[in-house]
Each structure stands twice: as structure tokens, then as C-alpha cells.
Amino acid sequence: MEKRKWTGKTGGSFLGQWGLIALLKFFDIRVGYALMSIVIPFYMIFSGKHARAIYHYFRRQFHYSRYSSLIWTYKNHFAFGQVILDRFAVYAGKRDIFDVEIVGYEHFLKLADGEKGCIIAGSHIGNFEIGGYFLRSEKKTFKVLVYAGETQTVQNNRAKVLGRNNIHIIPILPDMSHLFAVNVALQNGEIVSMPCDRHLGSAKSVECEFLNGKADFPIGAFALATTLDVEIVSIFVMKTATKKYKLYVRPLTIDTKENDTKSEKIERYVRAYVKEVESIVREYPEQWFNYYEFWKDC
User: Which residue(s) pair with 171 in the sheet?
Assistant: First the structure.
């Protein structure tokens, strides 16, 4: 089956996104959810490969029936629409309507107060971006690696809201200059957040057993952690109710031996991360937002 890489760009024109922010200033977000629930079936029909990839995800990775997979595909699209609307609600100044429970916050605070830099391993699960609106490091600058092709509306609002928490954006660029910026930030003892379930230009990866299939996961963040001897944690921000999220901070630890090579340590880190991803996806299967054929045996 032909694979298609997901660009990660939020849908909608500049005017449409600006209008959505304006509406959310005055209307309860639940109105948006209700309207979206009607539109989603039509979106699923016209989105083609994206909807099929998620349908296959439920059929092959969870072995759901055809009917159940179709229902779960709808649930997935509805969940994705909710997290997008939630981001725009924050852009509209409604950050305080959300209640976020943080599990493992002590792990983040320990790294934020330490002298060394550290890496936060993100993923396209739940609402990772909104986590940045609720995590704050008083001591260290926080750098976030993000897709550079977003609309100007999203880029401007994201930068404004994140900036209030001392978080600065590093755009992912075709010339790979973002890797230099990440390296400098880590050497300066800063926190760097980067997605670890999609390739950022490097083809290097580790094949892992993941949710009843085989998938490649990039080594970039884990190679940096090993080379620069910095700690790494995974963070997942999962929607649990209309206006509630649960943010999980999970340290990635590996068993090492004296004669381990660098590549062996990197591979162990990747597999530790994948184990955490699988654990959270099994708990929240509808919040998997990689809209392409992710598994190698598709």
C-alpha cells in the first residue's frame, strides 16, 4: 500500500482560522464540538487516505471489526477536532477553562532545576502542544521544535501563548539548521522538546515491535541524549473530558553495561520510548493522530 507522510499542517485558511478565534472569544467551546460532530462524517468521506489510515489502524493494530473500526475512526476524528478547537480556544484567551492534572510533575521539575540540558520526547498523540501552555520552567529557557509550514495565524498565536511560559520556538527547516539550534540549546543547559514519532529529515531509525506490527522510529532525540549525556522524558497530554486533560511525565531510563556501544544505548532509548507510547495509546486509542500508513506491514 502506498504510504503518505503527514505534513502536520492545521487545516483552514488564514481568514477561517482568524474567524474561529474570534468566535471562540464569545461562544462556549461545546458549541464548536456540536457543530463539528455533524461535519465529521463528510470530512471522513473526502479526506480519503487520512481516514483510511486510521480505519486500518483500528482494524490491524486493535483487531476491531469493520463496523467497530468505522465507529472508532469517527471517534478519532472527533477527538482530533476537539484538540484543535481547544488550541484555538487558548489562542482566544480561554486557557483558564481547562483543568489539567499533571502526573509525574516532580520529574519535570527535577530536570528544570538541574544544571544540564534535557530533552522532552513528544509525539502526535493527544494534545501535546497544549501541554506547553501549562508547563513552566522558571530557571531554564524552554525550546520547542515545531513544523515550520503552519499557517501564519497558528504560528503567531502559538508563539505568543508559549512565550508567556518562557518557551521559544525552533522551526523545523529543510536546510536542517534546526538541528544546530537544538544542539546549542542543549549544550547551554536548556530544555528542548521535540517530536519523536516522525522523521525530522534524518532517515536513521530503529525498527520496533509496536501495537501488533512493525514500525520505524527516528533516533534523532535519543542520539542527542546519548551524545550530550542529557536526560530525556516523554510527555503525553491526553484529553479526558470536555474541559479536562491529564498530562503524564514519564522519565526514560535504560539499563546500560560498560561495554555498550553508542548505537546500542540509542536503540535502548528508542525502545523505552516506544514502550511508553504503546502504553498510552492502548489507554487512549482514539487519540492517535498520525494520519498516514504508519506501520511497515500495511
Answer: 146
> How far apart are the C-alpha atoms of 287 and 127, rounded to whole Å?
9
pLDDT at 202: 59
Indicate the burial class of 63 (C-beta count within 10 angstroms; 0-12, 13-18, 19 or more): exposed
Report helix angle 152-163 to 66-91, nearest 10: 60
Say if residue 164 is exposed, middle or buried (CB neighbours under 10 Å; 0-12, 13-18, 19+): exposed
Digit-coded pLDDT (tens) for 28-66 = 899 999 999 999 999 899 888 999 999 999 999 999 999
pLDDT at 76: 98
Q: How does strand 244-251 pair with strand 99-103?
A: parallel
Question: What is the per-residue pLDDT across 240-265, written as a single tens digit (0 to 9) for each?
Answer: 999 999 999 999 988 877 788 999 99
Q: Angle between the 220-228 and 262-283 helix axes, to the nearest 10 degrees? A: 130
**pLDDT per residue over 83-131, tens digit each?**
999 988 888 888 889 999 999 999 998 988 888 999 999 999 999 988 8
